[in-house]
Every structure is written in C-alpha cells, then in structure tokens.
Specification:
Length: 547
C-alpha cells in the first residue's frame, strides 16, 4: 500500500467521525471524562490537603502516610481496576475510587513540601505577634505555600486525565472508549479520535493551572498578574470552538430509552473485535425477538474483569470460550478434548458460579499454526507434516504463547517439534512478519480475519495438541429461572450457526474493511433468515453466510 493510498484510507475513516452524530458521541465521552477527572481529583483534594496538614510536622506519621500513598502508585492501573471490580462492580464508582487513589499522592507530597518550606522570618514575625501553631498554618504557611499547593493539584489533574482513559475497560466510559475500540479494530482514526482530545484536555487543564500557579507566585512576592493578549485570544478561540461543538451536542440530543415494561438484558463483551461482533449478534437476536431490551457493555478489559462482572450481577450475558473457561477461570489442569457438548463444563459453571453455559455457536477460536501458501511450508496441510521441516524454519509467536501450558509447550510435547528459531512478536506484527519473510510460520487464532486471504494455509492440528476454544454464550442462572424462554430463544437462534469460515469473514469485515460491528452483525443475521435461492447454477455468496 502506497503512502498516498494510506493517506486516502485514513481520510475515509476520519470524515465519518466529523458527522454531527459522531461529534455528539465525542461530547458525551468528553463530559464523562471530565466528570471522572473532576470528581476524583476533588475527592483526592478533600482527603490529601487535610491529611498532609495533619502529618507534615510529625515525621513518623508523615513517612507512613506518604508510603501508603506511594503503594497505590506501584499497582498497575488495570490491575487496580480489576481488584476493585468484585467490591464495587462496573462503571463510574470503581473508576473514581481508582483515580482518587492515584491522585492523592501528588497532592499530599506538594502540601507537605509547601508547609515545610515557609520562610523563617515570616514565621518569627507571626510568633512575635502571638500566633499559635494553627494560626501560623492558616495565615503564614498556607498562603506562602500556595504555588506548590496548586502545583500538586496540577499534577493530580494531568495524571487523572491520562489514567481515566483506562476506565473504559470497566465500562466507565470517557474518551478511553474510542481508544479501546480503536486498538481492538486496528483503527488509527478512531484511536486518535479519543487520544487527541484526551491529550488536549490534559494540556488545557495543565496550562490553566500553570497560569494560576504563576499568578499565585507573583501574588506571593507582592506583584500583580496580567494575562498576555496572545493567551487571551487563545482562550477566547478555544471557548468559541467548545461553544460551537456544544451547540451541535445540544441540537442532536440522545434519544431517551423508554421503559416499555420489557426486561432489560445487559450484554458484555471483551475488548477485541470478535467479542464485539458476537456481542452484537447476541444483542440484536434478543432485540429482534421484540421481547427484550438490551444494554450493551462492550470493551471490558479482560477475562477476569468480564467474569467478575457477570458474577457480581453487573452484566447478564457474554460470550466465552471453552478453553479459557477451563484453564483460566476454573483453573483446571487441562482443557477437555473429548467433550464436544461441554457437559462437564456446563455442570461446573452451574454449580460453582450460578451461570449457564449455552450451546456452542459453532466455531472454535483455537490456536493455529499458519504458513504462507508461497512459503517453504506452503504445500503442507498438517502439523505432523511440519515436524520434519521445522528445524529449518523460523517460528513467530506472541510472548504469552511461549509459557502457556496449552501453548508452545503443548505443541512440543505432542509433536516433538523443534523449530530452527523461535521469535517473540507483538500481536500486531505476527502477520506482517510472516508476509515479509521474517518468519516462516506463526501461531495465531483460527478465526483471525486475515485468514480470509488465500495467501495463508492453516495447518490442521491432527493430534489435537491445542484445546478447543468453542465460543458459547454464558448466562446468569437467575435470568433463566425468571424467564425460561430466554434460554430456548438463544439456543434455537444461535447454536451451531457460525462456523470458523463465517467468523473469519465477520472479523475481516471489521478489522480490514473497517465496517461497524453492529452493521456486520445485522448483515449476518439477515443472511441467516433469508431463504437460499432455488438451485442456482452458481451459488450466490452472501457476505457472511456460513460455509
């Protein structure tokens, strides 16, 4: 692809994002982001300033408080969100708690520094005037330390704006929603649609508080502050742009959801393309029945997050994979390979979690070894055939696959296969590395959209080294108890209806052609309901019909 065609493709993706509907969505996410940030920093300020004022002159307590605040900085953001999920559920509350814990430290540190650095001559003058410790704190230390107090607040705001983008992984919204979906779809335009406003928001808040900090510093030294004309013009321009976009937001309000008495089913999805497509297929199946309303909670960050969400009752339904359920959730020693109906898994999910494992959708998103058709191993069809050629080949795989018991170790144990070189690759580089000849074979997933191309050969796992990852809806038992027809509807409509070839095409439509998951799911469901043409001379291939 030439730079010119790349530029045109990017513009084609960018222009729809400038429509009134998309700008309305941007405003909604921006307001969610601002709400998360300001609430979290506000709570952090209410905690941090008084706490620092209490311990700044008590060395033992000061070290304890600063150390405790430091502790939260060492916990990765996503890990902290995942830890809070079982306690606080999905959405706004756990996101605000996590952001508050991160924002407290810069406020506490700057306040302690500000109160400790007061000028001795001013303190002596205050004592001569008969001030006690509390009066010195209020009338001398705090006014003199005001620039540093604002500096700590400034750091807390910038930190919170950046960290708040991760809140999308637990369904809290914000600008991170665009980033999450953009990463999942490999859509640079959508990613920038979230990243650029987040960066501008951080820079804007930092600049504003920076000017207030300068004003406080000048006030401290007895000078007056005056905003330069160029900055005044810049502020006016930004306010006019915001006002114009706000007018669009208000002119195209979101339609309120009317409560018509139908039960609401909350459907979750992890943060990758296949999950979003399957989530849409399930959601639209329920909506098309006219018996249910659906609330979508897509882009949830990981298996642990989405599983905890359904256990906590934050969502009612999502699509899971049998191998993931057995190895990652139930922590079984090995996944089942001779239980196509997953009767054992269904029983464990019901007894352990109070969840129902429905019938498989019809495909397994298992690991697969893939070679190029024009490469050294392009004439092979099975992994057994690859064993003799492997010492002369370079294998590319994701770092996670090397150590997983169901990954590379399982492949070596079952086939006794040894490649000449094994290279660890980022997920996004797996197919480009195979295309350029940097590696001769790669390990990816059987339903990857790129496999629609005839350039690749998926080698059959003839000895079943890899466990099956059959996709199936998981539903809270409580819902089936209340409404048994829900189980029947989903099984009848979706069980066995999507095979691997169909899933690859669905993924290809979103990942490569940049179609919307909702549109792709709608076309697929229509293709299922349309009758096949009567004995055509050449079968008409609908976009997503199962093969």
């Amino acid at each position: 692809m030439t730079p010119h065609s790349l530029h045109n493709t990017f513009l084609e993706r960018l222009l729809p994002l400038l429509s009134p509907h998309s700008l309305h969505d941007l405003w909604q996410r921006l307001l969610e982001h601002l709400q998360l940030t300001f609430v979290a920093v506000g709570i952090a300020a209410l905690i941090g300033y008084p706490l620092a004022a209490l311990v700044w002159n008590r060395p033992r307590w000061r070290s304890l408080v600063v150390g405790f605040c430091n502790l939260f900085q060492t916990i990765p953001s996503l890990a902290l969100l995942a830890l809070l999920l079982p306690l606080l559920g999905l959405g706004f509350l756990p996101a605000v708690v996590a952001l508050t814990l991160y924002a407290v430290l810069p406020i506490v540190r700057s306040t302690i520094t500000a109160l400790s650095d007061s000028q001795d001559d001013l303190l002596d003058a205050g004592r001569v005037m008969g001030m006690n410790s509390l009066q010195l704190l209020w009338h001398v230390r705090l006014p003199q330390g005001l620039p540093q107090l604002i500096s700590g607040l400034r750091v807390a705001f910038v930190l919170s704006v950046g960290t708040a983008t991760l809140s999308a992984f637990i369904g809290a919204g914000g600008l991170g929603q665009f980033i999450t979906i953009g990463l999942a779809r490999n859509d640079t335009a959508l990613l920038l649609y979230g990243a650029i406003p987040a960066a501008l928001l951080a820079l804007g808040i930092d600049s504003l508080l920076g000017q207030i900090e300068i004003a406080a510093q000048l006030w401290k030294s007895g000078q007056s502050y005056r905003l330069p004309p160029r900055k005044v013009a810049c502020v006016i321009g930004i306010l006019l742009a915001l006002a114009a976009n706000l007018a669009i937001f208000l002119h195209h309000p979101a339609l309120p959801v009317q409560d018509d008495g139908r039960p609401v089913i909350r459907i979750g999805a992890k943060n990758f393309v296949e999950q979003m497509i399957l989530g849409e297929i399930v959601a639209q199946t329920l909506e098309n029945s006219d018996h249910y309303r659906v609330e979508r909670k897509f882009g949830l960050g990981s298996t642990a997050i989405i599983h905890n969400a359904i256990i906590a009752g934050e969502i009612d339904l999502y699509v899971e994979y049998s191998g993931t359920a057995e190895l990652n959730i139930l922590k079984l020693n090995k996944a089942s390979t001779n239980d196509p109906d997953h009767a054992g898994l269904r029983l464990l999910y019901h007894d352990v979690f109070g969840l129902e494992w429905l019938h498989s959708l019809g495909f397994s998103n298992s690991y697969a070894v893939i070679v190029r058709r024009d490469g050294k191993a392009g004439s092979l069809t099975t992994l057994s055939q690859l064993v003799a050629l492997a010492p002369s080949l370079k294998l590319g795989l994701n770092a996670e696959f090397i150590d997983r018991p169901d990954g590379y170790p399982a492949l070596q144990k079952m086939y006794g296969i040894n490649f000449g070189e094994v290279r660890t690759l980022d997920v996004g580089l797996i197919y480009p590395s195979l295309d350029t000849g940097a590696v001769d074979a790669v390990v990816a997933f059987a339903t990857d959209g790129r496999l629609v191309s005839k350039d690749y050969v998926v080698l059959t796992d003839d000895r079943r080294a890899f466990p099956r990852y059959d996709a199936a809806p998981v539903l809270r038992t409580k819902l089936i108890t209340q409404d048994p027809e829900l189980l029947t509807l989903l099984n009848n409509a979706l069980a066995g209806r999507i095979n691997e070839v169909a899933m690859r095409r669905l993924n290809y439509a979103v990942e490569v052609e940049h179609q919307e998951p909702a549109d792709v799911a709608r076309d697929f469901l229509r293709s299922l309901s349309e009758p096949a043409p009567a004995a055509p001379s050449k079968p008409h291939r609908k976009p997503y019909v199962n093969d």
